[in-house]
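Record type: monomer structure entry
Structure origin: computed from sequence
Chain ID: A
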Amino acid sequence: MPPRLNPSPETLFTRGWEDYALLDSGHGRKLERYGRFTVVRPEPQCFWAPRDPAAFDKADAVFDPQAQEDDDDGRWRFSGRPVETFPLAWRDVRFTGRFTPFRHLAFFPEQAANWEWLDARVRTLSRSSRPKGDGAAKNAPKVLNLFGYTGVASLACSAAGAEVTHVDASKKSVAYARENAEQSGLADRPIRWIVEDCRKYVAREVRRGVKYDGIILDPPKYGRGPTGEVWRLFEDLPGLLKDCAALLSDDASFLLLNAYAARISGLSLAHLMAEATADRGGVIDWGELALAEHGPDGRAIGLSFFARWSGQ
């Protein structure tokens, strides 16, 4: 039986937490708070005017892009002594923020909406994996996180009770993820850290007949594997998603896909997800992830698209 596709999109808002807030936005920039630092980053979608322009001038760090057409590459300008790293937390997960040369701070705050959803799904699975009577743990749910970056989603699933396999082609990103696991007190949890091209890893797992209860994919538009493999989202995602569906256990809980690309939409991801899970039943939700400004009347910035299949 094919999955049921939700006919209407959903916007998942991240409205901030103790260590993060979108304070203001406008004129192609956004003003954010990361822990104790206020930060200004480019955001072309913010056509509107900022509510408090003077606050942008008081930020602790401002990212200056090298070229107008590419706001990912550039450098940070600090109002005081330059900072490289700083501590952050989301619920039980502790991790390091980093002022990278790519305007990002080693995680994507809008993904908190997905972390909340993953936390709830894994905790439900973890409860169902405990046998009645003695309360001892049975088999923890198995979660695969592809393109796992610095590991916040992996650690959120681990903290919720999952056995996690974290895969990323970047040795540096996986090293940062392991450091974040140490900070979170999760280093002794069952987490496998894999530096490999995600397509190669998944294809090998399919051949081995390995199964997972939940899978997360957060692929870039373009990337390279550890031995020079080239990843192109539009060319390579369909095959990878099909292989991921083959890795889902019979009573799997979820398959979550997130993508950042100007020429993609939540609906296109949903149709691709429906094709990959054509014989599994379940429900596919789809839509957009957005950051909402602090306050009851805050504006929101749509930043990525998602599709997620939910099984049992």
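Annotation 1: The radius of gyration is 20 Å.
Annotation 2: Residues 132-137 have pLDDT under 50 and may be disordered.
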